[in-house]
């Protein structure tokens, strides 16, 4: 009873329809009782019982459906020439019995109703065409309720299957993230720590100031990369503190620091050029994923220039951000030969960034013309949501 009352307080679409139908059926039955008053009090009482059962059907469909049908069956056995027909209530009751039926034995209800109405019609010597359609309606109402129940069961099954699939996909994704974090920790992190320790030993053993400075630069770069790798591991492990720390970091100062480091890095390799930034004092509210991809593009640009650009030419990177949009334009001369021929390449770096930027509604274009490679990026800093 408690579950029925809870369902009544939070009705489904089917229950709301049942409420409307029950009210209409009750009103029509009462109208028949007034227009065609019963000769016997028991007939009127049975009509009232069915009206009450019909009104309670939205709360307790199956038991009230059975009571309503039973009231009609008993009324048909009473030789009362007047009174309500009780047809509308019986149709609704049979529909609800079929809707809540859990066993084929419930077919006894439409069978009993059809049998009693057939007996009643034969006693009145009615023509077959006057009652066969009426009898068929009893069976159709029961079948309609059973079909609706089956359809809702199929919908629930499909919904449950979708939820299971989503849960399996989420678990598989979490496993991939965990495996990736473990692989990065076991290989990249350990190798970087070994590299930093080796560089520390080399710096302490050498007396050459120029070499010590170069080793220090490599050591600082490796240490910075190690911190970024550890942050990536925390994100893969679902550590929200890593994301929160990145959100609190000043975007403008981070970009300027990245630009200075990139220019120093390329200058140490013999490249000439500069990065020009025109950034608003405060750029806040930028999604973490977009912050990462913008910084990733900057790092990728410096790496690509070091590997593919001509040392005899120049490079020029310009970045502007006004708090609502970020624009990056880069151009460099293409070298005839790569500076680092043994560097492993994935050929997916910029393409990966392109997909993410376009998912935020940004524009990402590259072009190669007259020996120069060009890039243009224009992306909103506060997109509504990534379109992925």
Topology at a glance:
Layout (H helix, E strand, L loop, with lengths): L1 H8 L3 H23 L5 H16 L4 H16 L10 H14 L7 H16 L4 H78 L3 H28 L3 H9 L2 H18 L3 E8 L8 H21 L5 E8 L3 E9 L15 H11 L3 E7 L2 E9 L8
Parallel strand pairs: 1-2
Antiparallel strand pairs: 2-3, 3-5, 4-5
Helix pairs in contact: 2-3, 3-4, 4-5, 4-6, 5-7, 6-7, 7-8, 8-9, 10-11, 11-12
Largest sheet geometry:
5 strands, mixed
Approximate helicity band: 55-70%
Percent of residues in β-strands: 5-15%
CATH class of the domain at 249-388: Alpha Beta
Treating each run of at least 4 consecutive H or I residues as one helix, how many helices?
12
* Low-confidence sequence ranges: 1-5
Keywords: Kinase, Membrane, Transferase, Transmembrane, Transmembrane helix
Domain Signal transduction histidine kinase subgroup 3 dimerisation and phosphoacceptor: 184-237
InterPro entries: HATPase_C_sf (IPR036890), Sig_transdc_His_kin_sub3_dim/P (IPR011712)
GO cellular component, one term: membrane
General description of the model:
The protein is of the alpha+beta class and 388 residues long. 66% of the residues lie in helices and 11% in strands. It is built from twelve helices and five strands. It has helices at 2-9, 13-35, 41-56, 61-76, 87-100, 108-123, 128-205, 209-236, 240-248, 251-268, 288-308, 349-359; strands at residues 272-279, 314-321, 325-333, 363-369, 372-380. The chain crosses the membrane at residues 37-56, 107-124, 130-148. InterPro entries: HATPase_C_sf, Sig_transdc_His_kin_sub3_dim/P. GO terms for molecular function: phosphorelay sensor kinase activity; protein dimerization activity. Keywords: Kinase, Membrane, Transferase, Transmembrane, Transmembrane helix.
């Amino acid at each position: 009873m408690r579950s029925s009352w809870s369902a009544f307080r939070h009705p489904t679409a089917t229950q709301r329809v049942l409420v409307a139908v029950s009210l209409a059926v009750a009103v029509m039955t009462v109208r028949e009782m007034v227009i065609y008053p019963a000769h016997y009090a028991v007939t009127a009482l049975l009509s009232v019982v069915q009206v009450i059962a019909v009104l309670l059907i939205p709360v307790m469909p199956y038991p009230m459906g059975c009571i309503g049908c039973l009231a009609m069956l008993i009324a048909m056995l009473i030789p009362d020439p007047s009174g309500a027909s009780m047809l509308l209530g019986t149709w609704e009751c049979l529909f609800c019995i079929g809707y809540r039926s859990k066993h084929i034995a419930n077919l006894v209800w439409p069978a009993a109703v059809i049998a009693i109405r057939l007996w009643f019609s034969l006693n009145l010597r009615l023509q077959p065409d006057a009652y066969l359609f009426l009898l068929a309606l009893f069976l159709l109402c029961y079948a309609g309720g059973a079909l609706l129940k089956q359809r809702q069961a199929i919908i629930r099954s499909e919904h449950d299957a979708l939820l299971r699939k989503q849960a399996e996909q989420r678990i598989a994704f979490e496993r991939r993230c965990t495996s990736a974090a473990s692989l990065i920790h076991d290989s990249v992190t350990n190798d970087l720590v070994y590299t930093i320790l080796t560089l520390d030993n080399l710096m302490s053993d050498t007396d050459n100031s120029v070499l010590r400075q170069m080793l220090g630069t490599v050591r600082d770069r490796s240490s910075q990369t190690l911190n970024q790798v550890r942050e990536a591991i925390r994100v893969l492990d679902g550590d929200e503190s890593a994301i929160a720390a990145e959100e609190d970091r000043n975007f403008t100062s981070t970009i300027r620091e990245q630009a200075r480091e990139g220019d120093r890095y390329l200058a140490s390799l013999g490249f000439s050029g500069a990065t020009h930034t025109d950034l608003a004092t405060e750029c806040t509210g930028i999604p973490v994923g977009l912050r990462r991809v913008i910084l990733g593009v900057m790092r990728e640009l410096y790496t690509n220039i070091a590997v593919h650009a001509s040392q005899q030419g120049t490079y020029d990177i310009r970045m502007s951000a006004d708090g609502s949009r970020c624009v990056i334009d880069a151009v460099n001369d293409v070298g005839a030969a790569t500076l680092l021929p043994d560097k492993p390449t994935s050929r997916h770096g910029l393409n990966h960034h392109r997909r993410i930027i376009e998912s935020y509604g940004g524009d990402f274009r590259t072009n190669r013309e007259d020996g120069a490679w060009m890039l243009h990026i224009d992306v909103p800093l506060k997109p509504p949501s990534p379109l992925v």
